[in-house]
């Protein structure tokens, strides 16, 4: 398909957030994020992979609220390579990827009131989460240009209380008051370099899972957007 036809298609039709949104020209230093959930949401929204629209996954049954913007990095996939990395780092054999795009939390001082938006964020670290034997990493990033958090470059600059708030949310948001056992565990809080490695592996997993996808959209991969 010619570049002119692609430009026409972009104007006529909405791009699929997972496959059609550009990951960004500076990946892994800066990545595009598709936001699904904001801290004021009392419903868990999730991308419908077939249509590209947000759907209601479930109302939040308990008092947990997500402490950051939450979504995923377009054109990523948690598959074999990410599962292997989690198994190496934890010493737990048999971990596999969760077969979803790579999750990401974005810290910002701004009140963003709804999801279904794209933004640019700078990864500074992450949480290595294992959910029932599946790697379910949560990249931690800061909103690019944010007045309060935008200068952070590594997880060590993030207050421990903020990290603990994220850990507590992901460890408890699915659990009822009488739940026994803990199917989810967070084994590591890792730094920027490890976050970059997780992103790179997620890119490789995406290419393996969706071969030829990049060749269909060469311009979208090279040029994230043009600033006004």
Write the layout of secondary structure elements.
Elements lengths: L2 H10 L18 E7 L5 E5 L6 E6 L9 E4 L7 H11 L5 E2 L5 E5 L9 E15 L2 E2 L2 E6 L16 H13 L11 E8 H18 L3 H4 L1 H5 L6
Parallel strand pairs: 5-8, 6-9
Antiparallel strand pairs: 1-4, 1-7, 2-3, 4-6, 7-8, 7-9, 7-10
Helix pairs in contact: 2-4
Walkthrough of the structure:
With 228 residues, the protein is α+β, with helices and mostly antiparallel strands. It has one domain (28-176, 183-210): Inorganic pyrophosphatase (Inorganic Pyrophosphatase). The protein contains six helices and ten strands. It has helices at 3-12, 80-90, 160-172, 192-209, 213-216, 218-222, and strands spanning 31-37, 43-47, 54-59, 69-72, 96-97, 103-107, 117-131, 134-135, 138-143, 184-191. The strands form two sheets. It has a five-stranded mixed barrel. A two-stranded antiparallel sheet has the order 2-3. α2 packs antiparallel against α4. The longest helix has 18 residues, at 192-209. The radius of gyration is 17 Å and the shape is globular.
Q: What's the arrangement of strands in the largest beta sheet?
A: 1-4-6-9-7
Write down the overall mean pLDDT.
Answer: 89
- CATH superfamily label: Inorganic pyrophosphatase
Q: Outline, from the CA principal axes?
A: globular
Please give the number of β-strands: 10
For this structure, what is the CATH class? Alpha Beta
Strand content: 25-35%
Oligomer: single chain
CATH architecture: Alpha-Beta Complex
Largest sheet, in brief, is: 5 strands, mixed, barrel
What is the terminal-to-terminal distance?
27 Å
Uncertain residue ranges: 218-228
For this structure, the CATH topology is: Inorganic Pyrophosphatase
**How many discrete domains?**
1
Element pattern in H and E:
HEEEEHEEEEEHEHHH
- The portion of residues assigned to helices is 25-40%
Helices and strands: which structural class? alpha+beta
- Tally the helices: 6
């Amino acid at each position: 398909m010619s570049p002119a036809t692609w430009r026409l298609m972009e104007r006529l039709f909405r791009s699929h957030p997972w496959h059609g949104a550009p990951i960004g020209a500076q990946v892994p230093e800066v990545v595009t994020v598709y936001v699904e959930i904001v801290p004021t949401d009392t419903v868990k929204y999730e991308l419908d992979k077939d249509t590209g629209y947000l759907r209601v996954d479930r109302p939040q049954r308990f008092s947990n609220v997500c402490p950051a913007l939450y979504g995923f990095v377009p054109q990523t996939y948690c598959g074999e390579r990410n599962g292997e990395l989690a198994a190496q780092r934890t010493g737990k054999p048999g971990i596999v990827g969760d077969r979803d795009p790579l999750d990401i939390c974005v810290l910002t001082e701004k009140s963003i009131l709804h999801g279904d938006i794209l933004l640019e964020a700078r990864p500074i670290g992450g949480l290595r989460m294992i959910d029932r034997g599946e790697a379910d990493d949560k990249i931690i990033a800061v909103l690019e240009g944010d007045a309060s958090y935008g200068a952070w470059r590594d997880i060590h600059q993030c207050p421990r209380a903020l990290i603990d708030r994220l850990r507590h949310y992901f460890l408890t948001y699915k659990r009822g008051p009488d739940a026994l056992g803990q199917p989810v565990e967070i084994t590591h809080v890792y730094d920027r370099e490890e976050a970059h490695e997780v992103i790179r592996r997620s890119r490789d997993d995406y290419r393996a899972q969706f071969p030829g996808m990049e060749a269909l959209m060469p311009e979208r991969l090279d040029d994230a957007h043009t600033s006004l």
